[in-house]
């Protein structure tokens, strides 16, 4: 996983911290109890409850690792001010060659949970195409099918909650 910092609002940092506490404590204990109860039923080869609990345990532990890394590398605060150059935390409006436009918040996908607008990660093709650019610039990026898309950056704003 990428060790680059992740920009988070204080609200998201607090929410993810609470999730980590829950997954590391009560949820982990609950899963362990499920595994123990299923083990007591015997024959683990054909014990669906045991295998389901083990799978749940693996997913939980993966999420715990992900949360720990994200929170350790988090940059917490308010979005950057309008410096003219697009950075993580800005709201960007782009126009595609066909005339369609899209307004989105350039932040980690963890912020998307509480956002009412579209969110793109800076690591996404579109996010990567706009980061460091300025209003009035053009940029392009490749779609998964290899097709090249050109965009015009129409507006750069500070995010307002």
Give structural notes.
The radius of gyration is 21 Å and the shape is elongated. 38% of the residues lie in helices and 24% in strands. It has helices spanning 10-24, 26-40, 48-72, 125-130; strands at 6-8, 74-76, 90-96, 101-106, 118-120, 138-142, 148-158. α1 packs parallel to α2 and α1 runs antiparallel to α3. The longest helix is centred in the middle third of the chain and has 25 residues, at 48-72. The chain folds into 2 domains: 6-76, Transcription elongation factor, GreA/GreB, N-terminal domain (Helix Hairpins, Orthogonal Bundle), CATH 1.10.287.180; 90-158, Chitinase A, domain 3 (Roll), CATH 3.10.50. The mean pLDDT is 86. The chain is α/β, with parallel strands linked by helices and 161 residues long. β3 (90-96) and β4 form a beta hairpin. The strands form 2 sheets. It has a 5-stranded mixed sheet with strand order 5-4-3-7-6. A two-stranded parallel ribbon has the order 1-2. The protein is built from 4 helices and 7 strands; from the N terminus they run βαααββββαββ.
């Amino acid at each position: 996983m990428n060790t680059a910092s992740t920009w988070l609002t204080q609200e998201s940092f607090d929410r993810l911290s609470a999730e980590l506490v829950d997954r590391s404590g009560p949820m982990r204990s609950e899963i362990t109890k499920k595994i123990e109860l299923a083990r007591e039923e015997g024959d683990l080869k054909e014990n669906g409850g045991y295998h389901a609990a083990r799978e749940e345990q693996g997913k939980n532990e993966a999420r715990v690792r992900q949360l720990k890394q994200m929170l350790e590398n988090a940059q917490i605060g308010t979005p950057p001010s309008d410096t003219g150059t697009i950075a993580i935390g800005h709201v960007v409006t782009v126009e595609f060659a066909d005339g369609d436009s899209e307004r989105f918040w350039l932040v980690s996908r963890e912020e998307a949970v509480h956002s009412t607008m579209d969110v793109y990660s800076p690591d996404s093709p579109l996010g990567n195409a706009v980061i460091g650019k300025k209003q009035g610039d053009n940029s392009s990026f490749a779609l998964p099918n290899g097709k090249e898309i050109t965009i015009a950056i129409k507006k750069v704003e500070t995010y307002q909650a």
